[in-house]
Design brief:
The protein is of the alpha+beta class. The chain has 17 helices and 28 strands. Pfam families: Peptidase_C2 (PF00648).
Amino acid sequence: MVLNEVICVPVFTASPWTLEYVLDNTTSGMFDVLLDFSGSSNVGISISTTLQTKLVLHAFDRKTISLYRLDETTRCAIRFQYNIVRQEGPPLILELTNAALSQIDQNLLHGGHYVDSTFLSKATSLHASPNEDGQYTWRHYTEFYPSNAQITGTSDLAVSLTRGGSLVSKAMLSALVVASKRRQILNRIISTSKHSFSIQLYRDGELQVIEIDGYLPCAHGGGPMLTKCTQGYLWPLLLQKGLAKLYQGFSHLAKVSFDELILSIFGYSAQLLFSLKDPKQASVHLNQIISCLLNDNVVCAKLGTTVFVVSAIESSSLVLLDPSHELDGDAANSKDEEINKCTNYSQYKKMYFAQFTSMVQSVWYLPKLSTCAKVCRRRYFVPYNANSSDTEALFGLSISSTALTLITLIYSLPRDKPIEFAVLSVQNDYKLSEIATCQNDPSTKYCQMQLELYPGEYVIAIKRSSIAIQEHQENNSDEVQLDRFFNVLDTDMDGRLNFDDLKRFIQLYDSELSIDHAAYEWLLSEFESDNRGLTLQGLRECYKANGMNDYKNDIFQKSTCCVLAVHSESSNFTLVQIE
């Protein structure tokens, strides 16, 4: 039940007998709460000597009231009343007390729980501006949830999502709603160990296993300022913290687009179904939406500034799931006035076809594809001559059954530099026949193609126009050249040079050479690093110390990092790089 912006969820367990009332403040406001069980029989409140209890819910707070039976052999009766009043303005002394408590929280962060030393619970992990850092404190999830809380459950995960605080963008809300429709994906990518959680995410096409602790950014004296699940499941909190670590800070994460978030969670992006400049054309595409839903795809539609999820289609209307739904009424002040007319404080809403077609801007769908079986990454290649037909990199793909296949190329070039790839089938006489060509969208740093492939062998050829290397002739200062050099060596595009990156670099000079772990550890100790690899500044310090300038070689200055990823409905396919 929803009570004046506070959600109260009763949780009953028959054996052993337990009854809990979980109060979840979904807003940044504060509430005085009175729970009255007067008239109940054979029960008591664990934190009170009477059948009444008062408490204060701070911003985004979550508290649990437990009832117990006085006599385990006798039945009980529950009579429940409540009174919830929003505080219009907390007294100054309360604000000062909360600030003092937050300092205590900071000092006790390492009290018995696992702490992730690579993403510490402090302001640097937020990357907020100095005047925002004081708005947050860090608290362990077990202060709000039981230690055995489940990651996902069996109920509808989407409708239990809250709006969250200032660290949550609309893009993140939309991505979480889409993720909630793929419960099997959530169960696969989020796992728990004795002390920590592991999240499998993608960055620039590379699968990365992100390890996190249980500390979350919270309001002073209150709860997590992130989107959370009111049914007590941990998945949205864990996924947001994993993504924040992937993007090196919560404030950085708030600037990531919906497309990039989907790519980071699933390993492939949502596919554009149609985009309209003339809204009248939308009615033609309703059949496409119906077909996508029937094939178990997640369909998203952009109306105004919000991305909705199309949940179902009825006789004359669409059932939409609104990710930006807010219980505190802030949605009523949104610019999307027409959309909010049908909100009625419910995440599921109906919209008639005529209204939908007059407002829709574009529609995507997320196909149900298998996990990427293998990601191939080219090591180093130089741009081909504009007068030549040579390709920069070749990949071989073998598939055993007819399947929808998504091929994605992610690269480190600026977004306005053209890059393309072609898919060619291998004929019986070993000649190649081009099936399709895909060129990048200037608004993204990747290009991708979805097509149905039949059993057989294919070649994927990557090309880049000579226009793409003009940037190398515009600025050739030592700093810029070192930046390019770093990007080439950083083949997994994670912003640091790890052991594998440096090993490839050494082998480029001489296949007989190698780097040992002792030398690698020495580099990290002598020059700037983040304990996981050499940073860009560390590489600059290294070259400044030895006076070498091999980074100016064309093989580095005209090379580009890219990642080729293939997802398919078929889990039985092979992807290899052709050297």
